[in-house]
Amino acid sequence: MFPGAQDPKQPQPYDLSNFTVLVVEDSTYMVTLMSSMLKAFSVGDIMECHNGKEAIEVLTVTQARSKSRFITHVDIVLMDWLMPGGSGEELLRWIRSHDKEEVRFMPVVVVSGFTTEKIVNSARDLGANETLVKPISAKGLASRICNVIEHPRPFVNVDTYFGPDRRRQESPINFEDRRKTKADEIKVVRKK
């Protein structure tokens, strides 16, 4: 829960003053809206890009300089899926295939107005942590960010997929479990 959000079950709001969120969106209106919501949540640093290629450049620079105590690293990426000049799909592929763990394990929330089943499945299958349908609300955005913080899913690395475990719940199976490693044994990388 964030400052200003009302929920009697969560008396202590998160302190997001040390968080850096990268908003990747081609619509100036949506960038302004999401940035305003993030400011209301007291996010410390909000970076804005207008397409996937610009975001790759920004992430390359920020992650290369992250060893400096004066340069922040990106904690969460909020990105549109369909953008001219570099799509969300291209950006998500780049993030999940990056050689640095700080980038590969970065939480990604896809925010798109075109949330057909095909796009949601594509985003999930490329390693998105969450998806959010436009038009967005502060409650919906806060919910996705809280999910990333409160319920980090273990990452799976197999020949055809790298990203957060796509299963959101444990359910009994009626066949032999072929996984070599149980979900609770998979390493979850968290920034400190």
Gist of the model:
The chain is of the alpha/beta class and 192 residues long. Helix content is 32%, strand content 16%. The protein has a single domain (20-185), classed as Rossmann fold (3-Layer(aba) Sandwich), CATH 3.40.50.
Give the name of the CATH superfamily. Response regulator
Query: What structural category do the secondary elements indicate?
Result: alpha/beta
- Average pLDDT metric: 84
Count every helix, treating DSSP H or I runs of 4 or more residues as helices: 6
Q: Low-confidence runs (pLDDT<50, min 5 residues)?
A: 188-192
Which keywords apply here?
disordered C terminus; single chain; alpha/beta; 192 residues; two-stranded antiparallel ribbon; globular
Structural account:
By secondary structure, the chain is of the alpha/beta class. It contains 6 helices and 7 strands; from the N terminus they run βαβαβααβαβαββ. It has helices at residues 28-40, 52-64, 88-96, 101-104, 117-126, 138-150, and strands at residues 20-24, 45-49, 76-79, 108-112, 130-133, 155-158, 161-164. Helix 2 runs parallel beside helix 3 (88-96). It is globular and about 50 Å long. The chain starts with 19 loop residues before the first strand and ends in a 28-residue tail after the last strand.
